[in-house]
Amino acid sequence: MAQGASFESGMPLVWDLTAEIKAWLTPEKLRELNTGWRAQGTGNPDAVIESLVASLLDPAMHYENLLGNLEVQFKRPSNLRQAYYGLYGWLVELAYHLLYFRHVQNETFIIRTLRYLEGIVGLARENTPLWIFSLNHDLIVECIAAHYGLRLDCGFSGTNALPLGDERGLRLGELPVQSLGGDRINASGLDFTNLTEPGINLIKIHGALDVFTVNEGRDLIKLVPTGSGVRGVLQSLRAANENLLYADPRFLGGKAKIINEIAYADEAGIMQFMRRTLLAGAFKFDQYSTQVLPHAFLKQFQDYLLRVSRLVCIGYGCGDAHINCVTG
Questions:
Q1: How far apart are CA 224 and CA 226, in angstroms?
Q2: pTM to 2 decimals?
Q3: Tell me, what's the pLDDT at 327?
């Protein structure tokens, strides 16, 4: 499943998301933001900003191309590499938040449109199990499972809870998560415990809104719905992005802000980090590149693909060489 599979439930196609980004991030807006960043003691060199401006003005470049161009720049030996890398992370975070708001602001619409995907429900109840290999970052499959009461296994077997709070440092409760150790996935892969039961086994190959790396990128966690149905899925997503925080009055809004990461206080009050896992750009699973999501995820896709007797592609434009090599 790729981006087109979630279009009926309000998720944008590549060019739709590109239009949103370019409508907000105009050249004037980007330069204005950089002026503000410089006033705060950070900011980027003009050459870096103008490189992104040129890409934004190119009508042939969608947002993955924009990110790919920044990746090319920070891979080149230069004293500007770190600036290009930081701007890349900021743009990935912008794409994350646009998708995030598409979810939490459209609960009723998502619920109403899930009927268009009821064929997946029938397949999940008839197969043991139904495997879904998704390139999407969105949570529409998770919403389907929650809404129709389907078993959903994403290969995360550990359990944990993270402390929620507000900008004053007051405790608001806990956020349940599933976990997966980096040693586990590198040694033996995802931990699917249901290989013969009806339901959905889901692998998100390009990362997801609800999957993060922790412990300096060694381990993975996935959010667990905090209630029933679609609302439970979206509540956990909202809690992670709004109430999992490190209260600090020195930061704007009273909480620590790290590009493309969520900073939060653990039970001992020590700052910890959850890094968003969205893979976007030109070098997904490139053997010479590093990325947030472990490279082992692609191997897992390849291995579990061998378990299926029939493969149906929904919404995929065949534009990812690393996927085509596996399915071809």
A1: 6
A2: 0.94
A3: 67
